[in-house]
Amino acid sequence: MNVEIASALYRYFEALYELNQNIMVLCGIDVLDNRGEYEKNIENVIHLVPKLVPYKYDKRKKSYKLENGDGLLEFESSMPFLRTDYEHILQCHYACLSDIKTIRNKLEHRMHGVNINSSGSGSFCLFEMTYQVDEKNIRITAGELIGLVRELNVLFAKIQEQVAAFAYQNDKFPYPYYRKITRFSFENFNQIYECNLLRIFGKALLPF
């Protein structure tokens, strides 16, 4: 860890914070009462995930892989756990990450080619949405997204620990920047996902 790396982390931390907030909002939706209010949240999720997980499609192998030197992997020599943890995330959440990338790519190049053709929420499922991308239906569920973001939260909490140790060793804790990016551990979000009040908390984040 050094000043250059610490300075580069802010936008990634901000993106993960926003990702958690958007997923929590989705956990509080009622697809009937909140119609027209939550579509932007799921779209935000779809755009944020590829910014936080540096993966791309390998045409030769016809599968997704980590992109060397992309995103936070630029700093893996200083934080070797990045590659190991990202590999684990990609392997464990491959289907979800693949679906997100498919939707994201279509949104970037042909927005009118992506539509939500069904959505649901209820006592057994916090939320689920099915996108139609060309002729393909892609289902996104609360369980998949929560599983993915919880692992990202654990990874980024490790990075926060590295920042905190660096700030302590170099007398930088009084600096507002270091206090801001370490004030709230990303693992604290996981306690909310595990709480039986998650749906109520999500409802409280929705517009009145």
Describe, in plain words, how this protein is organized in 3D:
The chain is an alpha+beta fold. The chain has one domain. About 55% of the residues lie in helices and about 15% in strands. It contains 9 helices and 5 strands. The strands form 2 sheets. Strands 3-4-5 form a 3-stranded antiparallel sheet. A two-stranded antiparallel sheet has the order 1-2. Helix 2 runs antiparallel to helix 6, helix 2 crosses helix 9 and helix 4 packs antiparallel against helix 6. About 25% of the residues are buried.
Topology:
Layout lengths: L2 H6 L1 H18 L11 H14 L2 E4 L4 E4 L14 H12 L1 H16 L4 E7 L7 E6 L2 E6 H28 L6 H7 L4 H7 L4 H8 L3
Antiparallel strand pairs: 1-2, 3-4, 4-5
Structural features:
two-stranded antiparallel ribbon; 9 helices; single chain; 208 residues
Q: Give the distance, in angstroms, between the N- and C-terminal Cα atoms.
A: 43 Å
The oligomeric state of the chains shown is: single chain
Largest sheet: 3 strands, antiparallel
Number of domains: 1
Strand content: 5-15%
Written as H for each helix and E for each strand, in order along the chain, the element string is HHHEEHHEEEHHHH
> Which blocks of ≥5 consecutive residues have pLDDT under 50?
none
Q: Tell me the total number of β-strands.
A: 5
Report the average pLDDT across residues.
86
Structural class: alpha+beta
Principal-axis shape equals globular
Q: Going across the biggest sheet, name each strand in turn.
A: 3-4-5
Radius of gyration: 18 Å
Give the helix tally: 9
Helix content: 55-70%
